[in-house]
Design goal:
12 helices; mainly alpha; disordered N terminus; two-stranded antiparallel sheet; 54% helix; globular
Length: 407
């Protein structure tokens, strides 16, 4: 509903407005809130939005440009910073408009049947959310810049953070355009370049030079709806506190990082500084994901299984009657094909990285079923004595794993 109204409003406005349009009337009509950040925008409306955003940024810049000439000291530096941020924003807009239009022209080629969704559409959707945030901040600046209670440093910081995100989105969209051009030349409809592509190697090298911090600071999860955004901000704050403790334990004694699980209470107390300083949180997250190994990831994944979070599971999640760690022996066995043609398939044990070895797994089931095992007090695997409530065997089994195995 909002998308149709938004498209009609912008199309009508820019079709009947001269280049020297009255921004005050438009800003009074268009109000942007947090729930509209994830709204999908059509190509024509995106062009109109970018034109409006560019006009707003230029008018705000003209206002503060006049103040720079008559100010000095700290006020002069503050106004100069605003001008620099708004100038950078205006410099991104033409290229952003071209890239988004280019990707949306060919994005439909990569849709699944009956589903308008693929990686190119996701990139443009994130771009739209960023543009809506910038539009909201510029409207707020224009309407309140002469107010006594207007906090210019705070508003400037908000715009600067999303301008940094827009700059990174511009770089990502440029790589998306190159991928699209490469697929168009080969007439392929693959979302990913083929193995051996120089673009993959170039991207893996250049991705380390991107400013990833802008995505994990105050702009964390900006492209999600407000309810999910708050949850992700909480998770990233906890991750930063956990990473800091993990790193300190590793510095004291190599291999003791996973013991950070025993400091959950102190981690929560330490997370206050990351809540107050989003830039510090972003720096900790980026450095941790780059420097720490897989042991850090496994330790953080285990946080939800600690005793500290057991009551949370009972209150919020459905009860799981069976959730036991088991060991899968490295043995070869056969299973019938799902096609029921009588043919059997040989299942070989995983052998990537470390060769054939027992695999640690967790068997989970919402209901107990025939053939399932349990671990008794002596940590020995024994056959389960079937009570009356045990259900028959299920035809479905879901495997969830990380990484890639080779045989």
């Amino acid at each position: 509903m909002f998308r149709r109204w938004f498209d009609s409003f912008l199309s009508f406005t820019f079709a009947h407005t001269s280049p020297s349009m009255d921004l005050s009337s438009m800003s009074a009509e268009l109000k942007v809130d947090g729930t509209q950040a994830a709204t999908r925008i059509s190509t024509s409306s995106r062009a109109n939005l970018l034109q409006y955003l560019n006009a707003l940024a230029r008018e705000n810049a003209a206002y503060y440009h006049a103040l720079v000439a008559t100010s000095s000291g700290a006020h002069h530096d503050r106004y100069a910073e605003v001008l620099e941020v708004l100038s950078t924003l205006c410099g991104h807009i033409p290229e952003i408009d071209r890239l988004a239009d280019r990707l949306m022209q060919k994005a439909y080629l990569f849709d699944s049947p009956g589903v308008e969704g693929n990686g190119y559409r996701s990139l443009v959707a994130c771009l739209d959310a960023c543009l809506m945030k910038l539009l909201e901040s510029n409207i707020y600046m224009k309407e309140h810049r002469e107010s006594f209670y207007f906090r210019l440093p705070s508003c400037t910081r908000d715009i600067k953070n999303f301008v940094d995100v827009l700059g990174m989105m511009r770089a990502i969209l440029q790589y998306g355009e190159r991928m699209l051009n490469m697929e168009s030349e080969t007439e392929a409809k693959d979302l990913f370049p083929r193995n051996g592509s120089e673009l993959i190697d170039e991207w893996l090298v250049n991705v380390e030079t991107l400013n990833q911090k802008c995505f994990f600071g105050s702009c964390t999860a900006f492209h999600f709806c407000p309810s999910i955004r708050m949850s992700l901000q909480t998770i990233t704050t906890g991750l930063a506190a956990f990473a800091e403790k993990f790193r300190s334990l590793e510095a004291e004694h190599a291999g003791s990082g996973p013991q950070a699980l025993g400091y959950l209470t102190s981690n929560l107390l330490a997370s206050r500084k990351f809540m107050l300083d989003p830039d510090l949180k972003a720096q900790e997250l980026v450095s941790s994901t780059r420097d720490l190994d897989i042991r850090f990831c496994k330790a953080f994944w285990s946080v939800s299984e600690s005793r500290f979070f057991e009551p949370v599971h009972w209150w919020m999640l459905p009860k799981c009657e069976l959730a036991r760690e088991i060991t899968i022996a490295p043995e070869v066995f056969t299973l019938p094909r799902a096609t029921l043609d009588g043919e059997e398939v040989t299942i070989r044990p995983a052998s990537a990285h470390f060769g054939e070895r027992p695999l640690q797994a967790r068997l989970m089931s919402t209901h107990l079923r025939e053939g399932q095992l349990f671990i008794d007090a002596n940590d020995t695997v024994t056959s389960f004595k079937l009570p009356d409530r045990v259900l028959p065997k299920s035809d479905c089994l879901i495997f969830h794993c990380h990484g890639r195995s080779q045989t």
